[in-house]
């Protein structure tokens, strides 16, 4: 009897401290307790390699994140060989979930000459193997802003093939149904087609489990309509999988008031969008941080970080941005719908057809996906059709289409300029990563 009571007591303690897991159902996320889940997150990549190895730093940051209502972080790169137990437990105790990019430092899917091979697949699998066991692992990204150009859509089938193969691997290993999705750059000329392509087709095992968008179109004294957020909702109102903003926080008109959060978590968007992630936690050269670890130092001084911005220590709020975000989030707590009451009705969208029109360009026809080991071979017609279109690049709403970050950006360290060659891009990538 005593043994049985002890077993029940231990089970009860486990249930109290365990965090509910996240799953995708229809166009929404739900916790294992049956509550709809809205992402209220922050991009978190303190160092170029892996921010989830320093348990002391994770604790300092998680405590401050919890104060402002953060429930998610996004990490762009990890070392799958590292020990992440303490950091993951720290964030779990704070009620914070991880959304993790699967690509490592040299395995990302490329926009130029795209390919999906066994080396990439095994590297992605290794990250999944290292993190699937954490209950606060909310989802995996198979790519971040792979397509950054108007004519970059020939790489889209490789992104979708990666999602297909990682979902298949997840299921073959008996892992829980951790959602697998993609984070897209806000490129107006191909955004709606990419969004639909990744979810189209009759075979759900080949489609993404969620779609996310990096968008910086709400700047300064903007609005739901001026920013184009109303159009993003219209484009996604019948989308069959969850959609959320994976980077936001335009800083071209300082200080940032994060007024877009009221739209995202309010009645205007919460029926369609499942939250947003603010870019970013740490202050660095791009000036997007909401905390700092101390004043910038001379990069030439002894033991200084390469860019002069400290990357560990006590997190100190950057004001007024930190306070403004905190003020927004404290008043924004959508409850959504209970899973037991939710009956999804949306079906997969039609796969977009090839078009090279100036206003909308999609260079993929149908839903044929490459197998592992495939490499894109451009035919004469395909090469001709993928030439960069003339004219400027914007999202049709008076805002730049590519993410307007500069300096160190963990997801895409350099925003690729229209027409830039791969060689120059590689040089700049290395330069900006360490500046």
TrEMBL record:
Residues 380-392 have a biased composition (Low complexity). It is a lipid-anchor; GPI-anchor. Its EC number is 2.4.1.-. The keyword Cell membrane does not apply. It is an enzyme of class 2 (transferase). Residues 396-406 have a biased composition (Polar residues). Residues 297-320, 380-414 are annotated as: Disordered. The keyword Signal applies. Belongs to the glycosyl hydrolase 72 family. Splits internally a 1,3-beta-glucan molecule and transfers the newly generated reducing end (the donor) to the non-reducing end of another 1,3-beta-glucan molecule (the acceptor) forming a 1,3-beta linkage, resulting in the elongation of 1,3-beta-glucan chains in the cell wall. This is 1,3-beta-glucanosyltransferase. It comes from Aaosphaeria arxii CBS 175.79.
